[in-house]
Amino acid sequence: xxxxxxxxxxxxxxxxxxxxxxxxxxxxxxxxxxxxxxxxxxxxxxxxxxxxxxxxxxxxxxxxxxxxxxxxxxxxxxxxxxxxxxxxxxxxxxxxxxxxxxxxxxxxxxxxxxxxxxxxxxxxxxxxxxxxxxxxxxxxxxxxxxxxxxxxxxxxxxxxxxxxxxxxxxxxxxxxxxxxxxxxxxxxxxxxxxxxxxxxxxxxxxxxxxxxxxxxxxxxxxxxxxxxxxxxxxxxxxxxxxxxxxxxxxxxxxxxxxxxxxxxxxxxxxxxxxxxxxxxxxxxxxxxxxxxxxxxxxxxxxxxx
Length: 305
Description:
about 300 residues, alpha+beta, Arc Repressor Mutant, subunit A, Beta-Lactamase, 2 domains, 6-stranded antiparallel β-sheet, two-stranded antiparallel sheet, about 15% strand
């Protein structure tokens, strides 16, 4: 019978060591990313003890890994509180990935799904300087189709998308905007008074949702909500529009739910992590939603004066 040739013991031992080293490297990488994800979920920072519990690692293992991340710039540690936060390297990488083309690439499939869910035209807009620019859109399934195109500029005082993006500015930024720009009237319902607009923006900021009840086009209603980036900043606004005869106030309220859902999905694509909810384990998976928002009723008819 032919004799089976066996590899020398030294060779087998060396191969075993290589495989163990590879497994160890993969495990360390998995642990490092788990730590980074937990740090990202805590915008005010996280202490080492809490970090250990969240990732389920021994304190010495966690300390050595997070110390390396600090040295590389992917995490930072507050000198006083000793809490860990996301480092500048992560911000630099994320900022480089979130240019306008990437925003459009990530928004488009979600807009298509939003149109499928709502049956209406869907839009994603960003603020470019003082302009509100629609950078991505999908057409609705109904007979009536809006003619908005990607690249169209819309007034912030008369559109739901614009109100969301204007409300995200600081009071000083809003003041500067109002000093430079006239509030143009498009329909009898357009808000053109400064105090009325400021009140509307405060409501949008509080509720996390904006409506356009025939304020830009007298025959069209819209609803929009903010989309957040990895820092929790408003990166854009997503919404749907439709004709009044099809989009009643009750229907608008119903469709606002799927708009919120799509905004949460796009926010997740941009790296936004919702604050952990009370009673929920910190390490549990959750769909990021702008929890600062509360449900707001669809607009009632505004008096024109």
